[in-house]
Amino acid sequence: MAEAFRMVVAVLGNVASVALYAAPSVTFKRVIRKKSTEEFSCIPYIVALLNCLLFTWYGLPVVSKKWENFPLVTVNGVGILFELAFVLIYFWFSTPKGKVKVAMITVPVLIVFSAIAIASSFAFKDHRHRKNLVGGVGLGVSIAMYSSPLVAMKKVIQTKSVEFMPLPLSFFSFLASTMWLTYGLLIRDIYVAGPSVIGTPVGIIQLFLHCKYWKRKVREEPNKENTEKVDLEMGHEKECVTVVPTNCNS
After folding, report:
1. C or N terminus of the chain, fewer CB within 10 Å?
2. What is the DSSP letter of 245?
3. Which residue from 242, 235, 229 is spatially nearest to 144, judged by alpha carbons?
């Protein structure tokens, strides 16, 4: 019975996290249509990519015992595909200067992940130390992802309008965080539950702001470009939370 309940929670967490990962697709359609990244930032997507890489590796038998954390592999594996696609699209439509910036951030991130993967594989002989290394770094990255919605929340409070914080994004962020917090507590894994300790309250606050301001309109017409930029950067927490965006182990 307990095992079945854990599986249900994991499946719900996977569904909510995939929906959260897919949220920025609308914004990237705009990037493709305009053939420009405009003033959008690539950093949230690169950080989310690192998060997904770390927790996919965390869930594999190299780090975890057998397939005890298989749900992390499935959801973060999908997350890798989404985030990698977003980063590649951003790179393709960036200016030459923007391409250099993407490369200068992405390459070190991939080097860091490779170093952690190699160290966890060969420097430690037991799963406990491997999980502490990969999980500890992943926890720090996830917490950074979950701080990204704070920008949008500040904007909501200033304008008294949730136009800058889409409800589906807030809902799936809350749902994913809640499910992964529950799952992490059930399996007694601090690295799975840890990010959601921050992500869940952030999600609750976002939903509260929706309840408070959903009928309000901004006092002045917002700049459309700035609005979409906020939406883009919220796409990961993340997280995580997004937001990640994201955590989508959480």
Report:
1. N
2. S
3. 242
Q: Is 118 exposed, middle or buried (0-12, 13-18, 19+ CB in 10 A)?
A: exposed
The amino acid at 141: V
Which amino acid, residue 57?
W
Closest CA to 234 of 176, 170, 177: 170
Contact between 69 and 59 under an 8 Å Cβ cutoff? The reply is yes
- Please count the other Cβ atoms lying within 10 Å of the Cβ belonging to residue 1: 5
Both tokens of residue 133? 């290394």
Determine the residue type at 159: T
Rounded to whole angstroms, the Cα distance separating 122 from 200 reads 35
Contacts of 224 by beta carbon, 8 Å cutoff, 6+ apart: none
Q: Which two tokens mark 131?
A: 């999980």
pLDDT tens digits, 174-195: 898 899 999 999 989 999 998 8
Residues in the chain with pLDDT values less than 70: 164, 216-250
Q: What is the rounded CA–CA span in Å between residue 151 and residue 211?
A: 18
Question: What does the alpha-carbon distance between residue 159 and residue 131 come to, in Å, rounded to a whole number?
Answer: 43
Q: Where are the domains of the chain?
A: 2-234
Quote the crossing angle between the two packed helices 96-122 and 127-146, to the nearest 10°.
150
Ramachandran angles phi, psi of 24, nearest 5°: -75, 0
What is the chain's alpha carbon radius of gyration, rounded to the nearest angstrom?
18
Distances, alpha carbon 216 to alpha carbons 22, 85, 163, in Å = 27, 35, 9
In contact, 231 and 243? CB cutoff 8 Å = no
pLDDT digits (tens, 9 = 90+) for 4-21: 888 889 899 899 889 888
CA 153: distance to chain centroid? 17
